[in-house]
Amino acid sequence: MTDSSAPIVVEQSFDVPKSTVWKAITEREQMVDWFFENIPEFRAEPGFETQFDIDSGRRVFRHLWKITEVIPGQLIVYDWRYEGLPGTGKVTFEIFEEGEGSRLRVTNEGIESFPNDMPEFTRESCEDGWTYLLQTSLKQYLDG
């Protein structure tokens, strides 16, 4: 595997049980508070699809998500695409017990399939985005 095709992996530990993390990553009412505020609907069911726009400051991206795998309380996998752009990513959320709390690992594969001339799709941009979402946004959300 080359460096550019290596998956991006970001992890964060939380002082809450796995079930609390699972709800935060799969219930729309919670996802809009830490992930993307304009997710119109979400169901943690294989085959479920949703789409919504995100303004990066440079352009608006229509996110196209399709859930491909779910193990309730443990794992959810998305196909992650953008309308009008080549490429398909795969994002896996995995939750593990860790002492009295839990740990969330997000693995983002396929970023090399997106246009390499767009700054939003650089490895650094994607790493920074996932790091912020897990280690700042979700952590603050779950810490209450």
Q: What is the distance, rounded to the nearest whole angstrom, between the alpha carbons of the first and last residues?
A: 39 Å
Order of helices and strands: EHHEEEEEH
- State the shape: globular
The whole-angstrom Rg is 15 Å
DSSP, total strands: 6
Can you give the mean pLDDT? 95
CATH class: Alpha Beta
The CATH topology: Alpha-D-Glucose-1,6-Bisphosphate, Chain A, domain 4
Family: Belongs to the AHA1 family.
Protein name: Activator of Hsp90 ATPase homologue 1/2-like C-terminal domain-containing protein
Domain Activator of Hsp90 ATPase homologue 1/2-like C-terminal: 15-142
Pfam families: AHSA1 (PF08327)
Description:
With 144 residues, this protein is of the alpha+beta class. It has three helices and six strands; from the N terminus they run βααβββββα. It has one domain (7-143): 2-Layer Sandwich (Alpha-D-Glucose-1,6-Bisphosphate, Chain A, domain 4), CATH 3.30.530.20. It has helices at residues 18-26, 28-34, 123-143, and strands at 8-14, 49-55, 60-71, 75-82, 89-98, 101-109. Strand 4 and strand 5 (89-98) form a beta hairpin. Helix 1 (18-26) crosses helix 2. The longest helix is centred in the C-terminal third of the chain and has 21 residues, at 123-143. The mean pLDDT is 95.
